[in-house]
Amino acid sequence: MSRKNGNSTVPLMHWFVVPFRMITDARVLEPEFVPQEVAYRDAEIDALASALDPITRGETPEPVFLFGPSGTGKTCIAKYALDRLHETIIDLSHQYVNCWGDYTRYKTLYRVLEGVDKALDVHRQSTPTDALLDRVYEYDGPPYVVILDEVDQLADVDVLYDLYRAHNLSMVLIANREEDVFVQLDERLQSRLQSATRIRFDRYEMDALVGILRDRVRWGLREDAVSDKILRRIADAAAGDARIAIGILRRAAQHATEQELETVTERIVDSAVPKAKTELTQKNIEKLNDDQRVLYEIISDHGEIDPPDLYNEYRNRVDDSKTDRMLRYYLQKMQHYNLIVADGENRGRTYRVVDSEK
DNA sequence: CCTCCACTGGAAGATCGGGAAG
DNA sequence: CTTCCCGATCTTCCAGTGGAGG
């Protein structure tokens, strides 16, 4: 992480070429970074801490739900609260699982076992899901808290029921919208989760966002590199989304460094904004397979296209074409990834790419 | 209004890839 | 080596749906 610049035997000429190092710690600008101190979310932290408080008495808390738009600190607060809890309870296990990537029952259970080192010999593919579940139920170690992020992305919500029944295991469930989670649950699980604590996260106010950015500058950049005026400009462009705001700051700092500027300018920020906003989309496109990418390109080319034209165009462009049913699975997946939108049902349906602002 | 029919998406089964057991 | 088993992927089949056009 830290660069070795203390090699005194060799003169490092390029340090003189770049006399001003703007970024002092790049980690604090990464999306996953969890600060030691968290501001502006005291109420939510307190609510989460008290929901998890039964652990300190040796009891298993009911599941806790964190709801709110992206970039409002849900993941960060969940991780932060567990780190703090770990300081008071030495004997505590916890694991973070992102259901967006590990969306099957099998993968989720695998991650859960991984968190308590019970998955070491499960690398073989011939271990059935039921065997993983048995291991989860056999767990008899210290209290175990599992953070399930993007829980609305689970293909099979049964895993929530699996984990609910597990001994000594509690869940922190994170999703954007409450409805997306609850409509999927069967009545049995719904009634059991009725009493669960729900904590809402709203978009950050301007001042809060500026404060968050100012902290990041203090921890990771040369303090005088970014003025408050610039921070306000970044916060304004991020519209209450801290993830985007920090993304803009990171890109702006990188661009400024490349151009050997001593401070981040308005021009730099303005060029970083669109890139930071489409960063997630770009990452998702990279995850698509060849067939999916062809579909995405066709939809992108046409702006708006109905299913028959889409399927035909796809078959024109691809040699070894998949069945239409498979294309529908791909299209569902791409909606899942927030890359495309389907308007209408059945015959009236058309597909278009997200944010084709025209 | 009614009927037709093209598209959707659930269900079930086949196939793939890879690891383990014999 | 072959055989078996797993999850993931893909195909096949088809009931349901709702728009188009009598």
Question: Would you write up a description of this structure?
Answer:
With 358 residues, this protein is of the alpha/beta class. It folds into three domains: 42-200, 3-Layer(aba) Sandwich (Rossmann fold); 204-277, Helicase, Ruva Protein, domain 3 (Orthogonal Bundle), CATH 1.10.8; 287-353, Arc Repressor Mutant, subunit A. The chain has 16 helices and seven strands. The chain has helices at residues 14-17, 42-52, 74-88, 105-114, 129-138, 158-165, 178-182, 187-192, 206-220, 228-238, 242-258, 266-277, 279-286, 290-302, 307-317, 324-336, and strands at residues 64-67, 93-98, 144-149, 169-175, 197-200, 340-343, 350-353. It has a five-stranded parallel beta sheet, with helices on both faces. Strands 6-7 form a two-stranded antiparallel sheet. Helix 6 links the parallel strand 3 and strand 4 (169-175). The longest helix is centred in the C-terminal third of the chain and has 17 residues, at 242-258. The two termini are 43 Å apart. Residues 1-10 have low confidence and may be disordered. The protein binds a DNA duplex (22 and 22 nucleotides) through residues 104, 106-107, 123-129, 307-308, 322-326, 328-329, 332, 345-349.
- Reading the helices and strands in chain order gives HHEHEHHEHEHHEHHHHHHHHEE
Q: Tell me which CATH architecture of the largest domain applies here.
A: 3-Layer(aba) Sandwich
Tell me the domain tally: 3
* Terminal CA distance: 43 Å
CATH superfamily of the largest domain: P-loop containing nucleotide triphosphate hydrolases
What is the strand content? 5-15%
Going by helix content, strand content and strand pairing, the class is alpha/beta
Dominant shape: globular
Number of strands: 7
Task: Tell me the major beta sheet.
Answer: 5 strands, parallel
